[in-house]
Amino acid sequence: MTSDAGSAKMGAIAIANGNGHDISVSIVAQLLETGESMHGNALSVYLQNYPQFFWKDPVLPCTDLATEMRNSQYSDVLGLKSLRRALAARDAAIRSQLFLSVDNVAVAQGATHAIHTLLQLFGGANAEVVIPVPSYSGYRDICNVLRLQYRPYGMDDSGAWLTEELLASLGPSSIMIVNTPHNPSGGQIQTGQLKRLAEAARRSGAVIIFDCVYDELIYEEASPEWNSVFKTANDLGSFIWVNSFSKNYGLPGVRLGWVTASATIIKRLEPIIESSILCLPDFIQRWAALALGRMSAALAPEMKARRDYLCAKLSGVAGLEFKRPAAGITMMAKLRNGSGMDLVQRLLKSHATLFLPGNAYYGGDPQTIRLCFGYSLSDIDKYTSVLASVLGRRLRVFSGAQANAQVGVQRRPFASA
User: Fold this and answer.
1) Residues 279 and 318 placed together within one structural domain of the fold
2) Last residue of a domain, which of 295, 317, 344?
3) Fewest C-beta atoms under 10 Å: which of 203, 207, 318, 335?
């Protein structure tokens, strides 16, 4: 495709998103296709939302993958018991739920597959899925595929999102998804909120799905006291947790997630998992069972350092407002002027660099772009330099001592946003 054709395609994308509402995954795919057509291998893409370039050495150095593959067999539908046992122990430690056992865990092909199977299980003609916004668009897309009704509720890091009106709206056909820590704000459900939610759900009969795929990447603020509400296996009821190796451990390629729930719900999931994927590769599960102990709690210090590095870099970019997230791996940068999609298209065309516009999220702010600090420091340097080259750099304010030290040093002119 010529650059003229690429520009024409960019215009078509802008028209498709002209109403300013949520954009679909297909629009992001179009942006990627357009960027590749215009720039080929020179295109730099910053769309990911998981930790990268952390595991510099093999997690299990002695694993012979070729032998493992040759000797692979069908595994149990719910997953190898060794992995389920390790995941139950991991969750028991994270949430202080020491009663969890192998019977409370089912292995899935990632968190998206886990949520899909759960919505299949609980969805029905009268079901309504209650989805946080802004949020991962997959929640909405799965509902559309399964033809389930859904409605949004606002979620952020303010601690005020769980309103009495929202709780009162829950009924026996409600399936509420709570993303904690929240992507992209990094906010968590607080212990007081958790207690109120549990009371309302038990009273109404609603199903609650906690999407906790960033629950090891917490840098400030305390995690909720899960064991203050869920003290025994009998307390689990219709409360479910979903997790993934992609986000907490930076290993999206292994395609492993899991569901933690009552033994009854886990057993009910078995035929749905069997009908969708039959089972997962046993050699991947054996590797994961052994590796889990080495990986747990390993990434948080590095990701916190990368977050702080990104915030320091962004503080020098004009025209952007952002808030340091207390958890997770992403943040939304808000533009003082213009839309996120306009900036994304501008950077794609002029700098061969692709970012995610804020309204790629379901209910996302169209005046934002999503930034991920899961990238290496060198990549963070690259993409913040691209942003600064277009938006300008902030004027640095020096103290008297700093100003004196700068005498005689040639300074670059300040470029406003």
Assistant:
1) no
2) 295
3) 203
pLDDT of residue 25: 58
Please state the φ and ψ torsions of residue 341, each to the nearest 5 degrees: -65, -40
Burial class for 377, CB neighbours closer than 10 Å (0-12, 13-18, 19+): middle
Detail the DSSP E strand segments found in 96-235: 105-108, 128-133, 149-154, 174-179, 207-211
Number of domains within the chain: 2
329 close to 51: Cβ distance less than 8 angstroms: yes
Tell me: cis bond preceding 181? Omega within 30 of 0 counts. Answer: yes
One-letter amino acid at 247 equals K
Between CA 280 and CA 278 the distance in angstroms is 7
Classify the C-alpha dihedral 267-268-271-272 as positive or negative. Answer: negative
Kind of pairing between the strands at 239-244 and 207-211: parallel
CA distance readout (Å), 229 to 224, 348, 411: 10, 48, 58
Q: What is the CATH number of the domain that holds 16?
A: 3.90.1150.10
CA distance to 103, 284, 412, per residue, from 82 (Å)? 12, 12, 60
Residue 72 banded pLDDT, cuts 50, 70, 90: confident
* Domain identity same for 305 and 265: no
311 band by pLDDT with thresholds 50, 70 and 90: very high
Task: Tell me the residue range of the domain where 236 lies.
Answer: 73-295
d(CA 201, CA 175): 10
Residue 290: exposed, middle, or buried by beta-carbon count in 10 A (0-12, 13-18, 19+)? middle
Residue where one domain finishes, among candidates 274, 295, 316:
295
